[in-house]
Amino acid sequence: PVVKEIFGLANLEEKIRTAYGLCKVVVVPGDSETSPLTKKELGRAGAKALLSVMSGNDVVAVTGGTTLAEVAEHLTPPNVSLKQSWFVPARGGLGESLEIQANTIASGMAKRVGAGYRLLHVPDLLGKEAYESLVHDPNIHDIVEMIRGARIVIHGIGDAMEMARRRKLEDSVVEELQNQGALAESYGYYFDNNGVVVHKMLTLGLRLEDIMRTDHVVGIAGGKSKAKAIHAVLKFGQEDVLVTDEAAAEEIVREL
Ligand code: G3H
To answer: With a cut of 0.90, is the ipTM above it?
Structure first.
């Protein structure tokens, strides 16, 4: 039965990999939405996927969320020295609870693998005026430049409506997102079923053009209810590596 299970997961991995043209897909058994143990396995697999693309002299931009927090928990120092590498938050993230903010996760990851980190102390969601004044601050400018030049991006994927709620977006914006068919949120952008960006948050840090230039984009998300969101982000077409769970993978494959 073990062999069969492994074979089944390998089959799911390959179907998803070819359908979306990815370099690598990892599927862990179970449903991370209902099983904390599966969520940990997802984190462990995510940590392994991240280390496999690091070379020792990287800037890694990381997003927030409970899944990325699990990834950080499972990072262990690799054989190669990562002293010359840096972890940075993908964007400003004050607003989410501290444990799952990108700053917390970036610093946690760096400490675990012996790399450096820089933080970006700006809110998740900015008003136009605040954005304008922050973007010209020299200290913030430096770290934002570093984030935008990241070689690796590791990020979570959220259901659009759930993330809109978690980020406390105004009712009118939530309604607009619904009308636009937003299914996914990732790195501050909202995507529809075709992977088209329908909304972006005014936030400092990584932009879509930066994501397009990075060498490795690693997405980590699981749970049956995230299948549509994962599909939407994969359709956007910038993903290289996907780490997910069986529940989400089965649902994604069903829709292919
Ligand atoms: O942008 C996506 C979210 O950060 C995902 O959060 O891992 O807690 O579901 P989560």
So the answer is: yes
